[in-house]
Specification:
About 25% of the residues lie in helices and about 25% in strands. It is α/β, with parallel strands linked by helices and about 400 residues long. The protein folds into 2 domains: about 5-65 and about 190-400, QueA-like; about 70-170, QueA-like (Thrombin, subunit H).
């Protein structure tokens, strides 16, 4: 049964001055809130490894943020911002990034009503000759409200990834209240980011430094990665009051066969770095159910965890994915998820979560509440009263799942 949840019960006062608008000089100097069994403590993030149990598998999201904001002008002189969300033609991320003359993306279009179908030219306020040589143009293929399909064309034979790097800006969240700056190119990116595709950072990972990763290695912590490309809707608040009416966007992800085998074997505590890693890992159970019942892995729909009881163990579900991959000689599960994690959700894999402090009335607050058995206010009241910094560039927490 789809849970009935009033999002107004998941709000809190967030003064503007508590939003971290810039990162700290050192990534791992952020504060770390520790929550376990209703008890809250605090430390500094660089000491995180001392709180991770030795027999732990720790999972990171290695997606990389792309400079997805592009600024164009119409022949009339009007300026439009185009925010690339996901590739359409070609539809696979890497293939789109490798194209050398044209590609199409689903985009959010600023001032969309002012675009009458003419070809837009890229703004080049610094007269960068490399940008001029690309001669990047945008053509509107179709539009629905503020989103649409935009076809990009350029001249110099560079791959689209290079076009974005030279012509685009990092899409920092609007709640930072400022334009993207040079510091964001580095700091709105995890140290271990590897696979291009996100339009928002998996912000729990922004605190990790090589010093912290080395300390985890020295402790013998098993580290693995997944890749979920974070969409623009991840951080949006729920509108309309009733969570049942909120539509989650699809996010693509991939998980290696090696990691799936480790998860199926069990025996280790599982720590997920970030809500994106949690959503990826918890989606695996329902993909495993699809393998058992339908013979193939299907993508996870928003309310799949709530509509019925599932008789299979976690090991059975994960084992079914492993078996399907091996039968088909595939070394990665590539899928997508719209899963929403709200109070009442049954966690099947994740035991600990590293996460930042999220916006009021957001799906991420709902996820945190589900993870800690409804005790999210204890955590947020402590953070508000003890000088923690909030949202993407803010401080961090290590949360233990309530049984």
């Amino acid at each position: 049964m789809i849970p009935l949840i009033d999002i107004k019960e998941f709000t809190y006062p967030l003064p503007p001055e508590r939003i971290a608008r810039y990162p700290l000089p050192e990534r791992d100097s952020s504060k770390l809130l520790l929550y376990k069994n209703g008890i809250v403590k605090e430390d500094v993030f660089r000491n995180l490894p001392s709180y991770i149990p030795e027999n732990t598998l720790m999972v990171f999201n290695e997606t990389k943020v792309v400079p997805a904001r592009l600024h164009f002008r119409r022949p009339t002189g009007a300026h439009l911002e185009i925010f690339c969300l996901e590739p359409v033609d070609p539809c696979e991320y890497n293939t789109s990034f490798e194209t050398t003359s044209s590609c199409s993306w689903k985009c959010v279009i600023g001032n969309a009503k002012r675009w009458k179908g003419d070809i837009l030219e890229l703004l080049n306020p610094d007269d960068d000759p490399r940008v001029s040589a690309m001669n990047l143009r945008a053509t509107l293929v179709s539009r629905e409200g503020q989103t649409g399909i935009v076809r990009f064309q350029w001249d110099d034979g560079a791959p689209f990834s290079r076009v974005m790097e030279l012509c685009g800006t990092i899409p920092i969240p609007p709640y930072l209240g400022r334009e993207s700056e040079d510091v964001d190119r580095d700091r709105y990116q995890t140290l271990y980011a590897r696979i291009r595709g996100s339009v928002a950072a998996p912000t729990a990972g922004l605190h990790f430094t090589q010093r912290v990763l080395d300390a985890l290695n020295a402790k013998g912590i098993d580290r693995e990665s997944v890749c979920l490309h974070v969409g623009a809707g991840t951080f949006l608040p729920v509108k309309g009051g009733d969570v049942a009416g909120h539509r989650m966007h699809r996010e693509p992800f991939s998980v290696s066969l090696e990691l799936l085998k480790k998860l199926a074997a069990g025996g280790k505590s599982l720590t997920a770095v970030g809500t994106t890693s949690v959503r990826t890992l918890e989606s695996l159970y329902y993909i495993g159910v699809s393998c058992i019942e339908n013979g193939v892995p299907c993508e996870v729909e928003q309310w799949a965890p709530y509509i019925r009881e599932y008789p299979y163990s976690t090991a059975e579900a994960l084992g079914a994915i492993v078996a399907w991959l091996e039968r088909n000689s595939v070394d990665h599960l590539v899928s997508g998820t719209r899963i929403i994690i709200v109070p009442g959700f049954r966690f099947r894999l994740v035991d600990q979560m590293v996460t930042n402090f999220h916006q009021p009335e957001s799906t991420l607050i709902l996820l945190v509440s589900a993870f800690v058995g409804g005790d999210w206010r204890t955590i947020y009241d402590y953070a508000l009263s003890h000088g923690f910094r909030f949202l993407s560039y803010g401080d961090s927490s290590l949360l233990e799942r309530s049984i």
